Fold this sequence. Notes:
Membrane topology: Multi-pass membrane protein
Low-confidence stretches: 312-323
Number of domains: 2
Protein name: Aromatic acid exporter family protein
Pfam families: ArAE_1, ArAE_1_C
Number of helices: 13
Subcellular location: Cell membrane
Shape: elongated
Domain Putative aromatic acid exporter C-terminal: 146-306
Strand content: under 5%
Oligomer: single chain
Helix content: over 70%
Largest sheet: none
Amino acid sequence: xxxxxxxxxxxxxxxxxxxxxxxxxxxxxxxxxxxxxxxxxxxxxxxxxxxxxxxxxxxxxxxxxxxxxxxxxxxxxxxxxxxxxxxxxxxxxxxxxxxxxxxxxxxxxxxxxxxxxxxxxxxxxxxxxxxxxxxxxxxxxxxxxxxxxxxxxxxxxxxxxxxxxxxxxxxxxxxxxxxxxxxxxxxxxxxxxxxxxxxxxxxxxxxxxxxxxxxxxxxxxxxxxxxxxxxxxxxxxxxxxxxxxxxxxxxxxxxxxxxxxxxxxxxxxxxxxxxxxxxxxxxxxxxxxxxxxxxxxxxxxxxxxxxxxxxxxxxxxxxxxxx
Length: 323
């Protein structure tokens, strides 16, 4: 937001100065239009300016027809709003509602529909929104450092969660606050938001590796939450729980690795084979515990499969990020 404020201030000053230099009437309006046109990212800025300029042209046309047909009465402005606002919203020009109203009110204040009045409004639009576009396309903040920090927080959080799950499997009486889950979830969502901004700042649309990475982590986080539900049903220590705890021990390090080697998945396959060879549960309590552990292994496989599938779809440059 800080950088956007700087861009807005610079675009406003430049637009007003340009309007004064060209001798345009009401030069402050050019500054107002520049404020409305500046946005956080390049593509969002281009979409905003397009919507505002298109809505303003349509507003000038509609208002001119109303003023010529009915006259410059105050209630005609309300009629314009009743017609224009739903129409623009329907055609995806909601961002241009305010800009369109500004130029219409200017025409109403002049009390005439003429080439001079319409030309002045078009000139103000070109200057204000033009400079907004220029500053939208200029240098934008670099997000790599923040995204790298959020990746570290996410992977550290995953590691801590796996460690706590292993502890609970070995000692069902252990108590855990779960704060790592909230912290990691917040980091993932922030990463998705910032990576989307990074994508919108590219002049040539393309996949954003960081966005793919955090989307993958969001899916894995959903899987982890289901694992936590299964672990919560383990009320006593059993040999099978210790075997799964070993997998979580490995995951505490694997999640921070730069490469997906598949060793944990191979270990899980061996574990599932050994489960099938074990005697059937003798008591209801043991049955419920084994069922929870079976569901846990299925969710663990889904977690591992997410990274495996996503990596196969990424380019070499993306694989350096998504592990």
